[in-house]
Design goal:
The complex is a heterodimer. Chain A is mainly alpha-helical. Chain A has helices at 2-23, 31-38, 40-54, 67-82, 85-103. Helices cover 77% and strands 0% of the residues of chain A. By secondary structure, chain B is mostly helical. In chain B, α1 (4-36) runs parallel beside α3 (53-64). The chains are: A mainly alpha, B mainly alpha.
């Protein structure tokens, strides 16, 4: 049963990836649609980013003494200055490790 | 004029920076899968069959929590619904390809491959072989994901949980949108989506992902209408 569930989840995921590529035809996207779609990363990624930073393991809001918030701010500053993906991630991870192992 | 293999290699190289956090994420997923008691086969098969990290983690958690199959499948679908929008963007550049190519490239389509290759596809559309870039970025991520999952399965409990490597996940996504945070319209979209996700995190089926995306896209639609109005 577990395997059937896993394979079903895989098929659904594949269909979500495949359906638009297979169904939408050339030039069927209007200028308006293209502008809207350019916002997709900004609209979807925060749904993964915010809870992972602001919530604790039990899904409760954690704003006090939360090293992830400060580490994320440092990552954003590093991202602005370096314009580099690796530098952004490592600035965040390094400051996070500093905060949890040294500061706290 | 570049050849197919040169474009494939370019896709491979372009996606590499984005894979630095993907590798530890894959290792963590492997370790967590083993710790949750999925066993090596289910843990690895998820990376092969679902091939979408955050939804795999949710699948593993729900499975070991004893959730019903329908809840597990819907959760994976909700979390991966964002691929619909990626597909809609990429379809414009891939529509001339055969069904075989569309099947292959769909399987390899991920957040990182999309982020890496959509710009290349847009600016090299006329060459007719630009999809090799997506194949290069997609296959490279796939390979690294399978390898890192395997490594995680073998490492098991050796990786210290105290390192908090899962924090690399939000950092990855943050690094992908950080350049847009300077634009007020993007910042508003980011904040509305992020706040909805945070405050509706406990909605059933982890549907907060879809809810947050919907609110974010609604705000984006408002800005789109303004842009179109200004251009007229």
């Amino acid at each position: 049963m577990t395997w059937i569930t896993l394979i079903s989840a895989g098929i659904i995921t594949f269909l979500l990836r495949f359906s638009m590529i297979a169904l939408i035809k050339e030039n069927s996207l209007s200028e308006k649609t293209k502008i809207v779609l350019s916002y997709v990363p900004s609209a979807v990624f925060p749904a993964i980013i915010f809870p992972a930073i602001f919530l604790d393991n039990s899904g409760l809001l954690d704003l006090e003494n939360n090293p992830k918030i400060l580490a994320s701010i440092i990552a954003i500053i590093a991202g602005f200055m370096s314009k580099n993906i690796i530098a952004t991630i490592f600035a965040g991870l390094a400051s996070y490790w500093f905060l949890i192992f040294v500061y706290y | 004029m570049k050849t197919k293999s040169q474009i494939f290699i370019k896709g491979l190289l372009d996606v590499l920076p984005l894979l630095i956090p993907v590798f530890p994420f894959g290792v963590i997923y492997g370790v967590i899968g083993m710790e949750l008691g999925l066993g090596p086969y289910l843990t690895f098969a998820s990376s092969f069959i679902i091939f979408a990290g955050s939804s795999q983690l949710v699948f593993a958690q729900l499975l070991t929590a004893g959730a019903s199959p329908l809840v597990m499948i819907s959760s994976v679908a909700v979390i991966n619904a964002r691929h619909l929008l990626y597909g809609a963007v990429l379809s414009e550049y891939l529509n001339k390809l055969s069904i075989f190519w569309k099947l292959i490239l769909s399987y390899f389509m991920t957040d990182q491959a999309f982020a890496t290759s959509s710009k290349f596809l847009k600016s090299n559309q006329e060459t007719g072989i630009s999809h090799y870039h997506l194949l290069g970025s997609g296959f490279t991520l796939w390979f690294i994901w399978q390898a890192s999952t395997l490594l995680g399965i073998f490492l098991g409990a050796i990786v210290p949980e105290q390192l908090g490597l899962t924090f690399a996940i939000p950092l990855t996504f943050l690094s992908l949108i950080v350049s847009d945070l300077k634009k007020l319209d993007h910042l508003m979209v980011v904040l509305s989506s992020g706040l909805v996700a945070t405050f509706f995190y406990n909605t059933p089926l982890k549907s907060y992902v879809l809810l947050a995306a919907f609110v974010g896209m609604s705000v984006a639609y408002f800005f789109t209408l303004r842009i179109i109005k200004e251009n007229k």
